[in-house]
Specification:
Helix 1 runs antiparallel to helix 2. This protein has a four-stranded antiparallel beta sheet. The protein has 123 residues and is α+β, with helices and mostly antiparallel strands. It has one domain: GTP cyclohydrolase I, C-terminal domain/NADPH-dependent 7-cyano-7-deazaguanine reductase, N-terminal domain (GTP Cyclohydrolase I, domain 2, 2-Layer Sandwich), CATH 3.30.1130.10. Pfam families: FolB. This is 7,8-dihydroneopterin aldolase. Belongs to the DHNA family.
Length: 123
Amino acid sequence: MGTRRIFFNRLAIDAQIGILDHERGATQPLHVDAEIDLRDVDKPTHDGIQEVLDYRRLRECIIDECTRTHVNLIETLCDRLAQRLLEQFPEIGNVRLRVAKPQAFADCAAVGIEVTASRGQGN
């Protein structure tokens, strides 16, 4: 047994997020990077999807959490997303998330928040 990391780079999601008047009632793009460490992973023996955590399920979970309701703070969204991933997928040991707003400022590519969470840390 070992560990395995599933990652997403710049998953593009339109979300309702922000505290400013122009952000309320509208969506804006977010970019989500995720590193998801699985614990006690066996090597697949039959090359079948049933032997691994299907990353399509992780992607659906990330998109659903980011789009289900308006959130004021990107910090709140990151914390909720980390908690949901740990609760919904018992095989996850650690998760690192970066959520960025690429349109927040004209003078930089993006601004965002990074959080890490581990099973057993308040979960």
